[in-house]
Amino acid sequence: MKDKIGIGLLGLGTVGSGVIDILRRNGELIKRRVGVPVEVIKILRKDSNKPVPADMPRNIITTDIKEIIDNPDIDIVVEVMGGFEPAKGYILNAIENGKNVVTANKALLAINGEELYSAASERGVDLYFEGSVCGGIPVIKALREGLAANKIESIYGIVNGTSNFIITKMTHEGKGFGDALRETQALGYAEADPTFDIEGIDAAHKLSILVNIAFGTPVDFKEIYTEGISGISPMDINYAKEFNFRVKLLAISKMKNGSVEARVHPTLVPCSHLIATVDGVFNAVYITGDAVGPTLFYGKGAGDLPTGSAVVSDIIDVARNILKGGNGRIPPASFREENRIPLKILNIDDIVSMYYFRFTVLDMPGVLSRISGILGEHKISIASVIQKGRQEGGNVPLVMMTHEAVERNVKNALLEIDRLTVVSEKTVMIRVEEGK
Ligand code: HSE
Predict the structure, then answer these.
(1) Is residue 77 within 8 Å of 6, Cβ to Cβ?
(2) Residue 436 pLDDT more than 80?
């Protein structure tokens, strides 16, 4: 029996520091759970002159990846450096060398996951990545293990804390977009490039990972329709409230007749839905399985300790496997490699959804009937309408909710409507979900 589990840590940024902190503060507890101590043997940093974590010897830091990958005392390589290269090369080398890998690298998994999953499966090592989606929320483990009995029917996720924080501030405090973004950056939640948060790319990375393991299909990241929150105005947030809806940036995936919907966009959800109540930097994922029904996973989706919690929990899982000879027992992508089936990802134009429209129109008789006429011709049925203000001969917002319609029809109708002389601005369209 091994007398300890050795860790090689790649990167010592926010998450790496959280990992060190947790391994220290909960070292005894972790030892009781694993059976032997878990010890950081080497830490890879770009610059060896940077400060060493307190109480650690200076020679724990290395700038040479070989000292980790070729080190027989290291059982698990923990990649928390982020980015594509050299992270990807390091992970592949580690796998080739028979090391188990834990990573929190969502962008890498979203784009190059297939290569990494098959490398780990072929080599029979563990590749765990709980920290890559929703920080401390154990949603990967839930999909891979806790819900493994189910056909997953749908996933609705608030998976980006930065955009949720911004929308929350705009909804409840009437704050401007810029102020709210600065606040979340100060809290350390935003990505180095916050356009990843605001434009939905970070959420799409996470959705790609979830879809892959939920449905057992490779996902081409480019096929995930992605729209961020930069076009959301306080006006739309307020009109949504009048209809009893909240605006949220949702990552949505549904299984539809053998095809998969996978999309990230601002969405109106009923105020009564649990996901509508998830505010601030918190994340939540609402997953429905055919046997279990709806489930909700909620918690902190970023930060040193929440993400560190996910990474260290993965380390514990892998350590337990090492000690019992169980590495490779759980396939990285949840389904066994040979049983994964590529599924069609539906084009956004083919989805069926309800819609919120805000038209900016001249306030004069007959405008509503012209708009509703065009909508009718495109098989779009109106559920409710409100007109705000009265500006005879001037512009007013005309706000509408529809029943279910095909997105392609909606786009064609809006093209026609926006060409009308009585319509003075591009129409705002936001998809609406009941979240069932
Ligand atoms: N920028 C991400 C967020 C961090 O705001 O949720 C965690 O992935």
Answers:
(1) no
(2) no
